[in-house]
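Honest question from a wet-lab person: if I give you the sequences of every part of a complex, can you actually get the arrangement of the whole thing, not just the pieces? Trying it with mine:
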Amino acid sequence: MIMILPELSMLLFSIVFLFLSLGRKKDGIVLLAKSLSIIIFGISLAGVFASGELFSGAYRLDLFSQVFKAIIAYGFCLVIFILDRQNEVEEAYFPEYIMFLGFSTLGLMMLVSSVELISIVIALEVSSYSLYVIVPLRKGQTNIQLEASVKYLFFGAISTGIMLFGMSYMYGIVKSTFLNDILKVLPGFMGQPIGVFALILTLTGFFFKLSLFPMHFWAPDIYEGASNTTTTFIATVPKIGAAALLIRITMLANASGVQFINLLIVLAAISMTFGNLVGLVQKDVKRLLAYSGIAHAGYLLMGVLALSKDGYASAIYYITVYLFMNLACFYVLVVLSKDGRNIVLDDLVGLSKRAPLLAFTLAVGAFSLAGIPPTGGFTGKLFLFMSAFREGHLTIVIIAAVNTAISIFYYLNLVRMSYSKEAESAEPIQLTFNEKALCYIFIFLVLYMGVMPFGLLDIFRMAV
Amino acid sequence: MTTALHKYLIMNTLSFPILSVAIFLPLAGAILLLFMRGERSIKVTALITAIINFPLSLFLFSRFDVGADRFQFGEFIPWVPSYNINYILGIDGITIFLILLTTLLAPLCILCSWTAIERRVKEFMFCLLIMETAMIGVFCALDFILFYVFWEAMLIPMYLLIAIWGGPRKDYASIKFFIYTLFGSVFLLVAIIAVYLVTNTFSIPDAMFRDYDFTFQIWVFLAFAIAFAIKVPMFPFHTWLPAAHTEAPTAGSVFLASVLLKMGTYGFLRFCLPVTPKASVFFAPYMIALSVIGIIYGGFVCLSQTDMKKLIAYSSVAHMGFATLGIFSLTLFGWEGALLQMLNHGVTTGALFLCVGVVYERTHSREIYDNAGLGKIMPVYVGFFGLFSISSFAFPGTNNFVGELYVLIGIFSQNKLAGFFSIVGALLAAAYMLRLLKQIVWGREDKRAISDMNAREVIYLLPLALFVIWMGLFPRPFVQVIEKTLMNLHSQMNIFFR
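Yes, you can. This is the full assembly:
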């Protein structure tokens, strides 16, 4: 029991808020959520070196899963801290909101430990269903978030269907649902259409979570429709779980699956090019970040398609950096948007005058997303490039390099708006201590991961 | 530390890591600025930080062993051991003057912005100091990744300098500058990774003079060359430069012209020649052609300019053309000339931009016509301006003459035609600079209430003026310092010339 403490504590957290949602008293809820989330992060961190198996091997605890759990718990903790303002969700739904965030995180934690197809599906659905519920929870009901939630639900269901279809193929080949058994047999089928087919269809479910082409189209609408904090969560934490499973599942392939790798290369190339090109014309910052997310899913795939230890480690490194830099950008949006509405590019004008720290946080986040040293985004991208290049995938590296140059335009736009344009009314934004602290944390994390990658990178290499 | 590295690097024997201090002192100053209030104290702190760095680099210079054939003052700290990325620093004859130039110009840039920058002083000084850190870092780094980090890190403060404190078209200029240079840089990164996958190390000395496959060299050279040619900038890649120069504040223009452009030619000398020697020989004729086109084109465009800053910006295209011309003449004389030209252009063009800044502060116009006829009103200013102008077109007895002479000797021994055309370019330079000088000094007669230069302005132009004359009359000490390193490079590369 002691091994699955992170999951248990997460479950407990959600149950606590389940009861709170039944009660009338709504005071002190945020404070409680904050302190509990810190404790959960502490527990996950302490459990990093736990190992073992549960449920006859369907649920495995190893360094890989535990590291991811710690990252997920940290992401969750940061999102809870971002969720400072109650102006995004109706007050009455607040405890439920936190409860569903908790359940979703629990699902992701289960996901990274699952090594059996059925439990993977269950974990994935636990995390998804909670999100389907919270997408429409936004103050000031309009059609836009209803549309978003319906879209999210439908596309999620479809992608689950496709994934199950692929898994049925896997089961058909191997006659087992355990990844270990599949790992022994499936690589032998990688030269044949059925093997590639099974793997690709299964991966589609995760592509949906990662918003990778061709499963990307939900992202911009849902990002735009959901409240700022919900988007912050959807854009960051589930991606970590999806990346973890993506890595686990691609491990089922081996280098002989040339068609499989070629397909991943094509997907990565299209995803980053499409995301970046469409990102260029976005006005709504959340939509812009959605397209940036599509592009980044493409970058991430470069590490995965190398099918090497280095590649997987760099993919984990990158998704971790992505978590921090994306959170940094979203955080600025959450703070800026006092009434919970969407921020468009023009709202950023004069930000450096109104709130220098916020502008700086946004700049660090944007430059990191663009991959400019000395930020974590650069170091992460460097590792990805190196691992893909080492396995001989020169084309995708060059495509990614060109894409980096394209993407700089819209990331720079964020900085340009907040720094070089002058605002007509420059009333300063007062930041609370909590907000300042979070800004400094994000800046520190992004820069730290850029300048000192060694410790984390070594842990990630050990984990894969 | 790899044993191979010992062959290239003399470790630092001073009691403190002098290169790291030189690099990170401005950064420390910049961080200190963040916690300060009050414009005056911010300016003074920034100035002091920058000033301390100059004697420090003079001290570095005094300990510099002219006869050594290896990198000196080496520092080595493992950084990301699993990928063999290390923090390696070291300098040689190619870099020592570039570091001196940077540390000399940094305080001058702060001085020239003393009254010109009126808003967001703290951020401005912060950017300047970060720039200094990155620039010194680029010249000291002996690890590809470290080099790349500094190389790219410089983009951000430079972008902000143009975007926030720039002229009316600052938006366009800053974005063009950023995207253009970043576009080249990503190819540089790909080339760096390619070299790494062959050598399994990011150490720059380790990557030099290896017998790489010829096709590999061709591709790596092209990737390097795109990045460096954009930075220099060579002829078809130069379009970002006039816009960026014209819109940048004076300090930004000075840094841009004097140091940033040098990073491109430095890259050619440091990476293209030793890492891809065969490809360099192969591509030399094309690079020479581009350089000559740049010289002539820059000259003609300058003739038609009415904006002082734009004229000097375009003249940079021509002058830097001489530097690349010298490098790709693949002769010792050419390289010496190129290196001297880099140094001279840094001083002269930096000084000319400072001069433009001086009048701009008074007349708020950079149009030649608006600033014409200053001869009687500002005699001291015109004295300085005249000196730097004649130095700019390589008048004998001034610094640029020495550099261009060396380059011409180098190129004539290799390619008479290119030599001939570059002389035409030098004549054009005389034409447009004298035209500018004539306009500024005697242009029109009217009585305007403009004060001559004040003490602060004289202080920041005087060292540059002294350098112009010193280098022009007595270049031997400068040549001596760079000679050994370049001779070494030449002898190592001689194998590939045959």
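Two things worth pointing out. Strands of chain B lie at 9-11, 71-80, 85-91. Residues 332-363 of chain B form the longest helix (32 residues).
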